[in-house]
Amino acid sequence: MSALTEPRHYTSELNYLNNGWTLKSWLLTKDHKRIAMLYLISITVFFALGGLFAAAVRLELLTPPGDLMDAETYNKMFTMHGVIMIFFFLIPSVPATLGNFLVPMMVGAKDLAFPRVNLLSWYLYVLGGIFAIYAAVQGGVDTGWTFYTPYSSTYSNTAVIVTAMGAFVAGFSSILTGLNFIVTVHKMRAPGLTWGRLPLFVWAHYATSLIQLLGTPVVAITLVLMMLERGLRIGFFDPALGGDPVLFQHLFWFYSHPAVYIMILPGMGVISEIVTCFSRKHVFGYPFIAGSSLAIAILGFFVWGHHMFVAGQSTYASMVFSLITFFVAAPSAVKVFNWTATMYKGSVSYATPMLYAMGFIGLFTIGGVTGVMLATTALDLHLHDTYFVVAHFHYVMVGGMVMAFMGGLHFWWPKMTGRMYHEIWARISAGLVFIGFNLTFFPQFILGYMGMPRRYHAYPEEFVVLNVMSTAGSSVLGVGYLLPAIYFIYSLYRGEQAPPNPFRAKGLEWETPSPPPTENFLTTPVVTEDAYAYAEKEVKALV
Amino acid sequence: MNKAMPLLPDSASQFAPEIDRLMGAEIIFSVFFTTLIFLSIGVLALKYRRKSEEDAPPHIHGSLILELAWTLIPFAITLVFFVWGVHLYFRVYTPDPSAMEIFVTGKQWMWKIQHPEGPREINELHVPVGRPVKFTMISEDVIHSFFVPAFRVKNDVLPGRYTNFWVTPTQVGKYHLFCAEYCGTQHSGMIGTTYVMEQSDYEKWVSGGEESMTLRGEQLFSQYGCATCHLPDGKGRGPSLVGLFNSMVKLQTGAVVKADEAYIRESILNPRAKVVEKFQPVMPTFQGLISEEGLLQIIAYVKSLEKEEGGAQQ
Ligand code: HEM
Ligand SMILES: [Cu+2]
Ligand SMILES: [Cu+2]
């Protein structure tokens, strides 16, 4: 932190974006806002790449026989789709872009606690990404993003080690981001910003960071063990070498279940900000939303066995994991009810971010209730590893997190770039995303219950109608994602100048120019009120 | 099988209607709460839509009573599903003692099935209607998963370890058999057909003149030289295997273990792991020498030794 000296005098034109135009001023920047932009560009590239792989998968599934590509290519397509979407898009999506940009601003700080570490985390991410792309160029990988042993460690003939290396390195980037957020929230809050006044976006990122810090090392070690077994034939998981294949699943899901909360909690933080701003209301049940984030982060570490109900796990272990999973569902439901209640007696605007937020609440609810079905041990006997699971996790990941990411991107775009996007086009594409998403993934619930297994290159004739619907929907969804890329870029050149607070939102990030100056605030802000103080007068509680 | 676009898969085991019923209950619950949320959002968004930029909504903090209500009520309902589900789940893993056994070996990319009476089949499964069937399954390579949607049950098939489940087929017909755990290139080709047959047809089918698993096991037993050490009278270098199955074995370490399928398999592949009391660890390992199917046959033979006093199968 170099800025102990008096802040420079600003004309309103000097901001973090025009403070240096050279490539070097970007690639060696320590400004969290520029690093957020670097992340935004890189994850967009990976989202597009992952989307192309998804398109290949959906096209193949248009017809029952495996006719478009051979089985091995298909397997590589869904694996690289999953690996890229999870490790290189969804995990960094909200935290590394919006979180990076906004957490320091929301706590009234000039930067994150460790700006150099922040830059390092981006470079680690890029290095991991290079591994992943190198693996794709090497001919790809076909293990599924879950890398189950002994297939990955012994039988696959593809670029497993390079891909796992990519995920491994990207994991460190995630750990560093988490560490940075935790220290920042503890140490760098502005005067008057007590824990009870923190925006829920910050609470959500705090909870996420805990998971990143505690969980990611476990998956890192697991991947290393798998690579050792594959490279040096040291037996951990392959029974032929004296290992236990199910041990891999325990270790993998010990991280990867909490990781699904890394992939949703930050999105929930975004939704809390959007729903309050566009209802002009204090959030309903602040302590319950904040507390439920922490509850999810902690309980999330004790449910991993729900991925293994049919994997030869003891029935008593399954029973306990199922029960704890039901417990973790409750705090998620709490959030949904509180957001909905926040709209009560509000002044609800239908601006684009709010459309995404309403979409999120609805789709996340569907993702949640189908999660309860999967958590029911007996139902999982039938549903496990069918398209029902594919539908469920897309409802949570895409219907949830990607909707939140898009909503947040629209909400803070004026702040981040100083430009307004085209509102009508934005609403149209939000509508397309909602329709396309449901058309793509709802039929998959039925397919799953009908018995179609996931990761199938070819499938029996009777599943064709639902698969055609799904592929049709995915093309609508694709257009819905493509439009924002166009109007966002257009807005950079032709968009209207954004005022500091176009949506009349509360929160420190809105009290500084758009785009913000490098030091974020011209003078250190002092906080004197709760978050979401949208109303002047206090009225009695609802019930 | 249904030709049009059915919304329910065929139903052919005693568990199928039960799982459908539980699923139905959860669907009702889910539709109720999802509709509640969608309707609330819709109604609130319409009723309280922004009328002017100067709208000044009231400040509402929250409500403890509401929080408790919408946490505890859905949670209590889901607990019913939990108990219901666990009850059913335990039954799937508690085979009927009278169940007939069928042995499944998964292998990239085919299902090999053995019936104790003799017949072996690939990618086909014949079972009689109305009789409990217990599946004992193992993989020769990677993890697979044995899935018959019409039974509403699947279970992973692991290398190095037996897994089980059981069903009673209830409906004569032809159903899918899938591999549900991704296992490599031809995963989606690792499929087959399940034939649920009338009992009498099954009897005819099964007695097709092939030699039984026990008989094959006995041949392997002498072929691999087991018989030279394991004499039925216990006077060889190894213990007599007569009456071994399901008995309690005392080990050198003093521990006592139950001689189930997994124990016998381990004794053959890794004899040093559990050495029987009063015996020298001289048994060679047969790791890599006997196929998983062969092992199942030997186990079937060892099991048969317990039926008659003196192991007089010969
Ligand atoms: C945008 C449209 C998308 C479409 C049409 C799509 C389609 C699919 C399909 C069809 C599969 C199943 C492949 C199979 O099992 O054979 C799949 C798997 C998967 N998708 Fe997507 N997807 C999309 C977006 C996303 C996004 C945004 C994410 C995460 C952020 C994601 C994460 C995954 C994961 C983790 C898998 C599992 C991969 C595996 O089984 O190894 N998808 N997707
Ligand atoms: Cu999980
Ligand atoms: Cu398979």
Summarize the model shown:
The complex is a heterodimer of chains A (543) and B (314). Chain A is mostly helical and 543 residues long.
Task: Please tell me about this protein's structure.
- The complex is a heterodimer of chains A (543) and B (314).
- In chain A, 65% of the residues lie in helices and 0% in strands.
- With 543 residues, chain A is mostly helical.
- In chain A, helix 3 (71-106) runs antiparallel to helix 4 (115-137) and helix 3 packs parallel to helix 6.
- The longest helix of chain A is centred in the N-terminal third of the chain and has 36 residues, at 71-106.
- Chain A starts with 22 loop residues before the first helix and ends in a 49-residue tail after the last helix.
- Chain B has two domains: 1-36 and 67-210, Cupredoxins -  blue copper proteins (Immunoglobulin-like); 213-309, Cytochrome Bc1 Complex, Chain D, domain 2.
- Chain B is built from seven helices and twelve strands.
- Chain B has helices at residues 15-47, 64-92, 199-206, 213-223, 226-229, 261-269, 292-304, and strands spanning 100-107, 110-114, 120-122, 124-128, 133-139, 144-148, 153-157, 163-167, 173-179, 192-197, 248-250, 256-258.
- In chain B, helix 1 (15-47) runs antiparallel to helix 2 and helix 4 crosses helix 7.
- The radius of gyration of chain B is 27 Å and the shape is elongated.
- Classes of the chains: A mainly alpha (543), B alpha+beta (314).
- At the A-B interface, helix 3, helix 5, helix 10, helix 11 and helix 12 of A face helix 1, helix 2, strand 7 and strand 9 of B.
